[in-house]
Amino acid sequence: MPNSSVTNAPLARHAMAYILAGGRGSRLMELTDIRAKPAVYFGGNTRIIDFALSNALNSGIRRIGVATQYKAHSLIRHLQRGWNFFRAERNESFDILPASQRVSETMWYEGTADAVYQNIDIISSIDPEYIIILAGDHVYKMDYEIMLRQHVDSGADVTVGCLEVPRMEAVGFGVMAVDETDRIISFLEKPADPPGMPDKPHMALASMGIYVFNTRFLFEQLRRDAETPGSNRDFGKDIIPYLVQYGKAVAHRFTSSCVRSGAEAGGSDAEAYWRDVGTVDAYWEANIDLTAIVPSLDLYDRDWPISTFSETWPPAKFVHDEDGRRGHAINSLVSSGCIVSGAALRRSLVFTAVHLHSHADVEGAVILPFVEIGRGARLRNVVIDRGVRIPDGLVVGEDPELDARRFRRTEKGVSLITKPMIERLAE
């Protein structure tokens, strides 16, 4: 393979994206009872994992692997249906890599690093010069080519994607300190008291879970780690701290490579959009934010599209035009196949094939596919899981104590509604 560091060719041409998509995402509560977090629906017709996959595709990467583990059926089915267009004759590849005891018949993936280690033979057969490790459960737009170029130009052993977050919000991240050249001088995984940045003590520099390596060097580190007693087999807990101490680890700031959409977004002054939608509140907020007149995340941007598998459905339909029975939606996103029949919808995001019946009044709702909202239902600040049938006249969002007894109600007053919860109402 030519040394791409001395050519002007895009480095993505010589890279593989390896997406870690095996996590449960337990903070999403019942939303991940039957699916892994990367398979959770987002934004009207996409899944969370589509953002990492689309970033790789838009960056020019044509060799992708996805490691799966927890309740992976819906994720694997989505990947097979929506991401099966890569062609080997064009030097492209797309591999779904479930935990399959390749190293030992008794071992599942023990950590993020182990999820790569167990597939070294498959990666070797693809033979990428660089490998970019990605988390499959975040919502953002990023040009990985820029990060790859920094990795090569800096001579780093590992380049770690990072973003600035409020200091006490960094307790769930790997937190790093850097010198004036952005070399990482310390790395703490999920510290209880995250260190602040020297110039911004109220902010911390947090790892995005994105790492760039030269592939052969990564293999050496994975084999070393696998032979280390007591290792967690994890990038954040083991591999990265080791390289901070004994190698050259460099931070890549998300603001350098984030994709800010559209001329009206304000160019470099626009928000560097990144969301961990790992709680029900964060998931609700990120979806509802899309209903703004000019949302921070532009799903309509054709310069950096988010690809997905999407079934063919007829256009959304709004019917009845009578006082008290007028099908309409205001400040809402309504997907294909939906029927708003004499119902009112405000500040809501509605996925495919949802049917709202007459006199239903819905506001602040994230409604997943194939939901049916009964006549006269009144719903405020809800997340409704796929396939739920909301009974006629059900009221949610007006009595916090009643909501908490019947559904999963969050600290911020969002009610998560699933099939089992509705079934219990009839008992």
From TrEMBL:
<dbReference type="Pfam" id="PF24894">
    <property type="entry name" value="Hexapep_GlmU"/>
</dbReference>
<keyword id="KW-0547">Nucleotide-binding</keyword>
<dbReference type="InterPro" id="IPR011004">
    <property type="entry name" value="Trimer_LpxA-like_sf"/>
</dbReference>
<comment type="subunit">
    <text>Homotetramer.</text>
</comment>
<feature type="domain" description="Nucleotidyl transferase">
    <location>
        <begin position="18"/>
        <end position="291"/>
    </location>
</feature>
<feature type="binding site">
    <location>
        <position position="207"/>
    </location>
    <ligand>
        <name>alpha-D-glucose 1-phosphate</name>
    </ligand>
</feature>
<dbReference type="InterPro" id="IPR011831">
    <property type="entry name" value="ADP-Glc_PPase"/>
</dbReference>
<feature type="site" description="Could play a key role in the communication between the regulatory and the substrate sites">
    <location>
        <position position="108"/>
    </location>
</feature>
<keyword id="KW-0119">Carbohydrate metabolism</keyword>
<comment type="pathway">
    <text>Glycan biosynthesis; glycogen biosynthesis.</text>
</comment>
<feature type="domain" description="Glucose-1-phosphate adenylyltransferase/Bifunctional protein GlmU-like C-terminal hexapeptide">
    <location>
        <begin position="314"/>
        <end position="417"/>
    </location>
</feature>
<keyword id="KW-0320">Glycogen biosynthesis</keyword>
<keyword id="KW-0808">Transferase</keyword>
<dbReference type="GO" id="GO:0005524">
    <property type="term" value="F:ATP binding"/>
</dbReference>
<feature type="binding site">
    <location>
        <position position="109"/>
    </location>
    <ligand>
        <name>alpha-D-glucose 1-phosphate</name>
    </ligand>
</feature>
<comment type="function">
    <text>Involved in the biosynthesis of ADP-glucose, a building block required for the elongation reactions to produce glycogen. Catalyzes the reaction between ATP and alpha-D-glucose 1-phosphate (G1P) to produce pyrophosphate and ADP-Glc.</text>
</comment>
<comment type="similarity">
    <text>Belongs to the bacterial/plant glucose-1-phosphate adenylyltransferase family.</text>
</comment>
<feature type="binding site">
    <location>
        <begin position="189"/>
        <end position="190"/>
    </location>
    <ligand>
        <name>alpha-D-glucose 1-phosphate</name>
    </ligand>
</feature>
<dbReference type="GO" id="GO:0005978">
    <property type="term" value="P:glycogen biosynthetic process"/>
</dbReference>
<dbReference type="InterPro" id="IPR056818">
    <property type="entry name" value="GlmU/GlgC-like_hexapep"/>
</dbReference>
<dbReference type="InterPro" id="IPR029044">
    <property type="entry name" value="Nucleotide-diphossugar_trans"/>
</dbReference>
<protein>
    <recommendedName>
        <fullName>Glucose-1-phosphate adenylyltransferase</fullName>
        <ecNumber>2.7.7.27</ecNumber>
    </recommendedName>
</protein>
<dbReference type="InterPro" id="IPR005836">
    <property type="entry name" value="ADP_Glu_pyroP_CS"/>
</dbReference>
<keyword id="KW-0548">Nucleotidyltransferase</keyword>
<dbReference type="InterPro" id="IPR005835">
    <property type="entry name" value="NTP_transferase_dom"/>
</dbReference>
<feature type="binding site">
    <location>
        <position position="174"/>
    </location>
    <ligand>
        <name>alpha-D-glucose 1-phosphate</name>
    </ligand>
</feature>
<dbReference type="Pfam" id="PF00483">
    <property type="entry name" value="NTP_transferase"/>
</dbReference>
<dbReference type="InterPro" id="IPR023049">
    <property type="entry name" value="GlgC_bac"/>
</dbReference>
<feature type="site" description="Could play a key role in the communication between the regulatory and the substrate sites">
    <location>
        <position position="69"/>
    </location>
</feature>
<keyword id="KW-0067">ATP-binding</keyword>
<keyword id="KW-0321">Glycogen metabolism</keyword>
<dbReference type="GO" id="GO:0008878">
    <property type="term" value="F:glucose-1-phosphate adenylyltransferase activity"/>
</dbReference>
